[in-house]
Amino acid sequence: MNREETEVFPLLERHLCVHRQRSMVWRTLTAMPLRLLERVLPFVTASLDESDTAELLNNIRLGCPEPGSALVRLLVRWAGRGKAGVGTAEAGASGAVGQHDSQQKGEWRNS
Asked: Where in the chain are the domains?
């Protein structure tokens, strides 16, 4: 990942608008298996400070064509596992995660 961080990411930042970068992040996330995301997102957010975590979650929300979608709420909840209280606090601020958790789990098993 060192090459990407030092060479590729700066090029992407220079040549792509923020909207396009968010869109690419969203497409990358949706191309990954849900079980992998469930394990990776807490790992990623555990290594970030609160500001970077909030920025990541905001970019996930803004990159999605439907920011309030069930998938966004699920990803935010999983990411929150890496930080005590982030999944609930961040989601609550956007009206995301809440009382329909068991219903959401059923949706993803069927997908």
From this structure: 2-110
For 38-69, how does the pLDDT look when each residue is reduced to its tens digit (9 = 90+)?
Answer: 999 999 999 999 999 999 999 999 999 987 89
Tokens linked to 74: 């699920």
HSE of 32, CA atoms in CB hemisphere, 13 A: 16
Output the pTM of the full model: 0.66
Kindly write down the DSSP assignment for every residue of the chain, as one continuous string.
-HHIIIIIHHHHHHHS-HHHHHHHHHHHHHHS-HHHHHHHHHHHHHTS-HHHHHHHHHHHHHHSSSTTSHHHHHHHHHHHTTSTTHHHHHHHHHT-SSTTHHHHHHHHHH-
